[in-house]
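Figure 3 (text version): structure tokens given as input.
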């Protein structure tokens, strides 16, 4: 058996074991979003979902899909009616998530186009109302960061700049983010998008290690070609080194979430999302962590 065949069989084994684990898990009571086993042990990797994955579906549908997936941790975005910026509408959304047992741990991607106190404060108030500890931020201009840092200190909410790959004029790679925030308040950091990271030519495992304690969220996708954005596939069907990523996160005692952001097949994402969670659960099971959220 050659190495390529062995890797393919191993990958399929992970998927099958993940699917079996998911099926067994679905018959038991759901774990809280804090990702604990029934015995109370804290799990090493916390799997969550980016609501943008279901951007073509409303909040009720999103909640229904999350229940099917048995995923209770959400990075919510102001898309459709998932988490509106309007305070009244946001409160309705939060009530719906609470009733469904879904815990929000981050908001975003949130954009900060203005270097103005009022605009920045409104985004931090949005996060505060949601009760999250992380704002995932898209494309803030470097000159706005000192002002944003003041609000990070005031609200005690971490600010995670999301890298968007080679198309991003500012933040190609998490290492570009680290260069700018490295000497700022420790709550200024990164949301590493692993798909965009590899497309920027950056070793994603090394980037995670270098960002270290400034890693506040991880957005997950897989690619068959690290140079092609359009090559995105379900997790496990591409080339992303998930086992090494998880191994690194566990070694550094990462406390944040690993959020699936499946951006293809927007009108019918569920098959790819199911496959992605099954695969990631299978990888963790293969590493000796049979119970996980």
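Below: residues designed for each position.
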């Amino acid at each position: 058996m050659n190495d390529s065949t062995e890797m393919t069989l191993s990958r399929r084994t992970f998927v099958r074991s993940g699917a079996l684990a998911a099926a067994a898990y679905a018959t038991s009571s759901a774990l809280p979003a804090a990702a604990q086993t029934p015995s109370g042990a804290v799990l090493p990797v916390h799997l969550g979902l980016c609501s943008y994955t279901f951007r073509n579906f409303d909040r009720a549908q999103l909640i229904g899909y999350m229940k099917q997936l048995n995923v209770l941790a959400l990075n919510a975005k102001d898309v459709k009616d998932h988490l509106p910026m309007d305070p009244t509408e946001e409160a309705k959304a939060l009530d719906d998530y609470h009733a469904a047992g879904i815990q929000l741990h981050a908001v975003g991607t949130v954009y900060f186009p203005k270097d103005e106190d009022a605009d920045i404060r409104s985004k931090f108030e949005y996060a505060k109302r949601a009760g999250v500890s992380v704002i995932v931020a898209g494309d803030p201009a470097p000159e706005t960061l000192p002002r944003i840092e003041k609000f990070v200190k005031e609200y005690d909410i971490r600010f995670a700049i999301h890298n968007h790959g080679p198309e991003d004029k500012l933040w190609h790679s998490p290492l570009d983010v680290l260069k700018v925030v490295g000497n700022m308040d420790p709550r200024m950091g990164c949301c590493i998008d692993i798909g965009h990271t590899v497309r920027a030519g950056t070793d994603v495992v090394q980037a995670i290690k270098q960002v270290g304690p400034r890693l506040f969220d991880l957005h997950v996708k897989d690619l068959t070609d690290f140079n092609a954005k359009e090559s995105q596939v379900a997790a496990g069907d591409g080339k992303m080194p998930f086992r090494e990523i998880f191994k690194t996160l566990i070694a550094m005692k990462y406390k944040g979430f690993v959020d699936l952001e499946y951006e293809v097949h927007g009108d019918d994402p569920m098959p790819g999302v199911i496959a992605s969670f099954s695969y990631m659960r299978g990888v963790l099971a293969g590493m000796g962590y049979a119970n996980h959220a």
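Confidence is low (pLDDT under 50) at residues 1-41.
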